[in-house]
Amino acid sequence: MNFKAAVFGAAASILSFGVATAADLPSYKAPPPPPPAIGFDWTGYHLGISGGYGAGSTGYLSNVTAFGPTPVVNWNNVATNLGTRGYLVGVQSGADWQLPNRIVLGYESEFNYADVSSNVTGGWNWGNQLYSRLRWYGAERLRIGYAFGRFMPYVTGGLAYGQLHVSGVDSVAGYLFPTSASSWQAGWTVGAGFEYALFDKISVKAEYLYSSLQGTHGSGLGYPNAYRTFTGNGFDTHIARIGVNYRVKNLGALIGMPDLGI
Predict the structure, then answer these.
(1) Locate the Outer membrane protein beta-barrel domain: which residues (predicted)?
(2) Three-state secondary structure along 92-139?
Protein backbone atom coordinates (compact mmCIF):
# COMPACT_ATOMS: atom_id res chain seq x y z
CA MET A 1 0.00 0.00 0.00
CA ASN A 2 2.81 2.37 0.83
CA PHE A 3 4.52 1.48 -2.46
CA LYS A 4 1.39 2.37 -4.51
CA ALA A 5 1.00 5.61 -2.63
CA ALA A 6 4.62 6.47 -3.37
CA VAL A 7 4.19 5.75 -7.11
CA PHE A 8 1.05 7.84 -7.38
CA GLY A 9 2.68 10.68 -5.47
CA ALA A 10 5.71 10.66 -7.77
CA ALA A 11 3.48 10.69 -10.87
CA ALA A 12 1.47 13.61 -9.53
CA SER A 13 4.66 15.56 -8.81
CA ILE A 14 5.93 14.99 -12.37
CA LEU A 15 2.62 16.12 -13.91
CA SER A 16 2.44 19.24 -11.76
CA PHE A 17 6.04 20.10 -12.65
CA GLY A 18 5.27 19.71 -16.38
CA VAL A 19 2.22 21.94 -16.14
CA ALA A 20 4.14 24.63 -14.28
CA THR A 21 7.02 24.47 -16.75
CA ALA A 22 4.65 24.76 -19.75
CA ALA A 23 3.04 27.80 -18.17
CA ASP A 24 6.44 29.49 -17.99
CA LEU A 25 7.21 28.92 -21.71
CA PRO A 26 6.43 31.73 -24.24
CA SER A 27 3.16 31.30 -26.09
CA TYR A 28 3.26 30.47 -29.83
CA LYS A 29 0.97 32.20 -32.32
CA ALA A 30 0.59 31.32 -35.95
CA PRO A 31 1.91 33.97 -38.39
CA PRO A 32 -0.73 36.40 -39.74
CA PRO A 33 -2.22 35.50 -43.12
CA PRO A 34 -0.71 37.26 -46.15
CA PRO A 35 -2.39 40.53 -47.17
CA PRO A 36 -5.09 40.19 -49.80
CA ALA A 37 -4.09 40.71 -53.40
CA ILE A 38 -4.61 44.29 -54.62
CA GLY A 39 -6.17 43.18 -57.90
CA PHE A 40 -5.24 45.05 -61.06
CA ASP A 41 -2.12 47.21 -60.71
CA TRP A 42 -1.89 50.30 -62.93
CA THR A 43 1.88 50.56 -62.54
CA GLY A 44 3.59 50.33 -65.92
CA TYR A 45 3.91 51.89 -69.35
CA HIS A 46 1.41 52.38 -72.14
CA LEU A 47 1.20 53.26 -75.83
CA GLY A 48 -2.03 53.92 -77.71
CA ILE A 49 -4.18 55.84 -80.16
CA SER A 50 -7.08 58.25 -79.67
CA GLY A 51 -9.49 60.39 -81.62
CA GLY A 52 -12.24 62.87 -80.95
CA TYR A 53 -14.00 66.15 -81.55
CA GLY A 54 -12.81 69.68 -80.84
CA ALA A 55 -14.76 72.95 -80.77
CA GLY A 56 -14.13 76.43 -79.41
CA SER A 57 -13.15 79.90 -80.52
CA THR A 58 -10.23 81.94 -81.76
CA GLY A 59 -9.62 85.65 -82.13
CA TYR A 60 -7.23 88.37 -83.28
CA LEU A 61 -6.50 91.95 -82.23
CA SER A 62 -5.67 94.31 -85.10
CA ASN A 63 -4.00 97.70 -85.20
CA VAL A 64 -4.94 99.50 -88.42
CA THR A 65 -3.41 102.63 -89.94
CA ALA A 66 -5.33 104.22 -92.84
CA PHE A 67 -3.51 106.60 -95.17
CA GLY A 68 -4.03 108.17 -98.59
CA PRO A 69 -6.02 111.21 -99.74
CA THR A 70 -7.62 111.46 -96.29
CA PRO A 71 -5.73 112.25 -93.05
CA VAL A 72 -4.02 109.30 -91.33
CA VAL A 73 -6.39 107.47 -88.99
CA ASN A 74 -5.53 104.72 -86.49
CA TRP A 75 -7.68 101.97 -84.97
CA ASN A 76 -6.15 99.96 -82.12
CA ASN A 77 -7.07 96.54 -80.73
CA VAL A 78 -9.93 95.89 -83.13
CA ALA A 79 -11.19 92.37 -82.30
CA THR A 80 -11.94 89.61 -84.81
CA ASN A 81 -13.64 86.55 -83.25
CA LEU A 82 -14.29 83.21 -84.92
CA GLY A 83 -15.88 79.93 -83.85
CA THR A 84 -14.02 76.68 -84.51
CA ARG A 85 -14.87 73.00 -84.77
CA GLY A 86 -13.38 69.80 -86.19
CA TYR A 87 -11.54 66.61 -85.22
CA LEU A 88 -8.24 65.35 -83.83
CA VAL A 89 -6.61 61.93 -84.17
CA GLY A 90 -3.24 60.90 -82.79
CA VAL A 91 -1.03 58.78 -80.56
CA GLN A 92 -0.17 58.87 -76.86
CA SER A 93 2.36 57.22 -74.57
CA GLY A 94 3.13 57.41 -70.89
CA ALA A 95 3.72 55.75 -67.55
CA ASP A 96 1.77 55.22 -64.30
CA TRP A 97 2.76 54.41 -60.73
CA GLN A 98 0.14 53.02 -58.35
CA LEU A 99 0.81 53.80 -54.68
CA PRO A 100 -0.24 51.53 -51.76
CA ASN A 101 -3.16 53.88 -51.01
CA ARG A 102 -4.50 53.31 -54.59
CA ILE A 103 -3.57 56.79 -55.80
CA VAL A 104 -2.11 56.55 -59.30
CA LEU A 105 0.48 59.10 -60.46
CA GLY A 106 1.10 59.29 -64.18
CA TYR A 107 2.62 61.14 -67.10
CA GLU A 108 1.32 61.19 -70.68
CA SER A 109 2.66 62.63 -73.92
CA GLU A 110 0.49 63.01 -77.02
CA PHE A 111 0.70 64.25 -80.61
CA ASN A 112 -2.25 64.68 -82.97
CA TYR A 113 -3.16 65.57 -86.51
CA ALA A 114 -5.93 68.15 -86.24
CA ASP A 115 -8.49 69.87 -88.42
CA VAL A 116 -10.16 72.21 -85.92
CA SER A 117 -11.01 75.24 -88.03
CA SER A 118 -13.23 78.22 -88.68
CA ASN A 119 -14.65 79.42 -91.99
CA VAL A 120 -16.55 82.71 -91.79
CA THR A 121 -18.07 84.64 -94.69
CA GLY A 122 -19.27 88.23 -94.42
CA GLY A 123 -18.35 91.83 -95.09
CA TRP A 124 -18.51 93.22 -98.59
CA ASN A 125 -20.88 91.87 -101.20
CA TRP A 126 -18.18 89.95 -103.07
CA GLY A 127 -17.62 87.96 -99.90
CA ASN A 128 -14.53 88.27 -97.75
CA GLN A 129 -13.56 85.07 -95.96
CA LEU A 130 -11.15 84.39 -93.07
CA TYR A 131 -10.04 80.83 -92.36
CA SER A 132 -8.26 79.81 -89.14
CA ARG A 133 -7.11 76.29 -88.33
CA LEU A 134 -5.34 74.20 -85.73
CA ARG A 135 -3.22 71.82 -87.86
CA TRP A 136 -1.15 69.88 -85.31
CA TYR A 137 -1.70 69.53 -81.58
CA GLY A 138 0.41 68.04 -78.79
CA ALA A 139 0.57 68.05 -75.01
CA GLU A 140 2.79 66.93 -72.13
CA ARG A 141 0.51 66.22 -69.17
CA LEU A 142 0.61 64.91 -65.61
CA ARG A 143 -2.22 62.62 -64.40
CA ILE A 144 -3.49 61.91 -60.89
CA GLY A 145 -6.04 59.13 -60.55
CA TYR A 146 -7.56 56.73 -58.04
CA ALA A 147 -7.74 53.00 -58.71
CA PHE A 148 -11.02 51.19 -58.16
CA GLY A 149 -9.56 47.92 -59.36
CA ARG A 150 -9.67 48.06 -63.16
CA PHE A 151 -11.49 51.41 -63.20
CA MET A 152 -9.49 54.62 -62.73
CA PRO A 153 -10.91 58.17 -62.87
CA TYR A 154 -8.28 60.90 -63.12
CA VAL A 155 -7.58 64.61 -63.54
CA THR A 156 -4.83 65.88 -65.82
CA GLY A 157 -3.05 69.05 -66.88
CA GLY A 158 0.13 70.43 -68.36
CA LEU A 159 1.78 72.04 -71.39
CA ALA A 160 0.00 72.23 -74.75
CA TYR A 161 1.38 73.27 -78.13
CA GLY A 162 0.19 73.39 -81.72
CA GLN A 163 0.65 74.70 -85.23
CA LEU A 164 -1.89 77.39 -86.12
CA HIS A 165 -2.68 78.77 -89.55
CA VAL A 166 -4.79 81.72 -90.69
CA SER A 167 -5.55 82.68 -94.30
CA GLY A 168 -8.10 84.49 -96.43
CA VAL A 169 -9.39 88.05 -96.38
CA ASP A 170 -10.22 89.84 -93.14
CA SER A 171 -12.46 92.92 -92.92
CA VAL A 172 -11.32 95.36 -90.21
CA ALA A 173 -12.61 98.94 -89.77
CA GLY A 174 -14.01 98.90 -93.30
CA TYR A 175 -10.75 97.79 -94.94
CA LEU A 176 -10.02 94.40 -96.51
CA PHE A 177 -6.75 92.70 -95.58
CA PRO A 178 -5.39 89.63 -97.40
CA THR A 179 -4.15 87.47 -94.53
CA SER A 180 -1.74 84.54 -94.41
CA ALA A 181 0.29 83.44 -91.39
CA SER A 182 1.37 80.20 -89.73
CA SER A 183 3.26 79.54 -86.51
CA TRP A 184 3.80 77.10 -83.64
CA GLN A 185 2.37 78.29 -80.34
CA ALA A 186 2.54 77.04 -76.74
CA GLY A 187 -0.13 77.15 -74.07
CA TRP A 188 -1.74 74.98 -71.42
CA THR A 189 -4.40 72.32 -70.99
CA VAL A 190 -6.46 70.83 -68.14
CA GLY A 191 -9.08 68.11 -68.06
CA ALA A 192 -10.42 64.89 -66.58
CA GLY A 193 -11.34 61.41 -67.69
CA PHE A 194 -11.41 57.74 -66.80
CA GLU A 195 -9.64 54.61 -67.98
CA TYR A 196 -10.81 51.01 -67.73
CA ALA A 197 -8.62 47.93 -68.13
CA LEU A 198 -10.52 45.46 -70.30
CA PHE A 199 -7.63 43.02 -70.05
CA ASP A 200 -4.27 43.06 -68.28
CA LYS A 201 -2.62 44.66 -71.32
CA ILE A 202 -5.52 46.50 -72.98
CA SER A 203 -7.33 49.53 -71.54
CA VAL A 204 -9.80 52.03 -72.98
CA LYS A 205 -10.26 55.65 -71.95
CA ALA A 206 -12.55 58.64 -72.40
CA GLU A 207 -11.50 62.16 -71.50
CA TYR A 208 -12.26 65.86 -71.79
CA LEU A 209 -9.56 68.53 -72.22
CA TYR A 210 -9.70 72.30 -72.36
CA SER A 211 -6.76 73.72 -74.31
CA SER A 212 -5.68 77.36 -74.67
CA LEU A 213 -3.07 78.53 -77.18
CA GLN A 214 -2.14 82.13 -78.00
CA GLY A 215 -2.91 82.27 -81.73
CA THR A 216 -0.74 83.38 -84.61
CA HIS A 217 0.32 86.90 -85.67
CA GLY A 218 1.24 88.84 -88.81
CA SER A 219 0.92 92.08 -90.81
CA GLY A 220 0.11 93.36 -94.29
CA LEU A 221 -1.39 95.99 -96.57
CA GLY A 222 -5.15 96.35 -97.02
CA TYR A 223 -7.60 97.78 -99.52
CA PRO A 224 -7.94 100.69 -99.91
CA ASN A 225 -4.79 102.34 -98.56
CA ALA A 226 -4.34 100.78 -95.12
CA TYR A 227 -1.77 98.80 -93.17
CA ARG A 228 -2.45 96.36 -90.35
CA THR A 229 -0.61 94.33 -87.71
CA PHE A 230 -2.45 91.62 -85.79
CA THR A 231 -1.74 89.29 -82.89
CA GLY A 232 -3.52 86.17 -81.71
CA ASN A 233 -6.07 86.67 -78.96
CA GLY A 234 -6.41 83.00 -78.05
CA PHE A 235 -7.17 79.71 -79.79
CA ASP A 236 -9.29 77.88 -77.20
CA THR A 237 -10.56 74.36 -77.81
CA HIS A 238 -12.80 71.95 -75.90
CA ILE A 239 -11.71 68.41 -76.77
CA ALA A 240 -13.79 65.26 -76.13
CA ARG A 241 -12.27 61.94 -77.20
CA ILE A 242 -11.85 58.22 -76.67
CA GLY A 243 -8.76 56.05 -76.94
CA VAL A 244 -7.22 52.63 -76.41
CA ASN A 245 -3.88 51.78 -74.77
CA TYR A 246 -1.56 48.78 -74.83
CA ARG A 247 -0.06 48.37 -71.35
CA VAL A 248 3.09 46.59 -70.15
CA LYS A 249 5.02 46.42 -66.89
CA ASN A 250 8.47 47.21 -68.29
CA LEU A 251 9.64 49.64 -70.92
CA GLY A 252 11.51 47.03 -72.95
CA ALA A 253 8.32 45.13 -73.73
CA LEU A 254 6.64 48.35 -74.87
CA ILE A 255 9.26 49.07 -77.54
CA GLY A 256 9.86 45.45 -78.57
CA MET A 257 13.14 44.89 -76.72
CA PRO A 258 14.16 42.54 -73.89
CA ASP A 259 13.34 43.57 -70.34
CA LEU A 260 15.34 46.73 -69.65
CA GLY A 261 14.71 46.50 -65.92
CA ILE A 262 12.77 49.78 -65.86
Answers:
(1) 62-247
(2) EEEEEEECCCCEEEEEEEEEEEEEEEEEEEECCCCCEEEEEEEEEEEE
Averaged pLDDT for residues 167-174: 86
Domain with residue 64: its CATH number is 2.40.160.20
Contact criterion met (CB below 8 Å) for 84 and 100:
no
Helix (H, G, I), strand (E, B) or coil at 257: coil
Find residue 82's DSSP bridge partners.
58
Q: What's the domain count of the chain?
A: 1
**What DSSP assignment string belongs to 57-74?**
EEEEEEEEEE-SSSPPEE
From 178, 139, 184, 187, select the one nearest 165 (Cα to Cα): 184
Q: How far apart are the C-alpha atoms of 206 and 52, rounded to whole Å?
A: 10
Residue 3 forms part of a structural domain: no
29 assigned to some structural domain? no
Residue (of 123, 120, 121, 127) closest to 85 by Cα position: 120
Give the model confidence (pLDDT) of 66-117 as tens digits. Answer: 987 667 889 999 988 889 999 999 999 999 999 999 999 999 999 999 999 9
Query: Is 259 domain-assigned?
Result: no
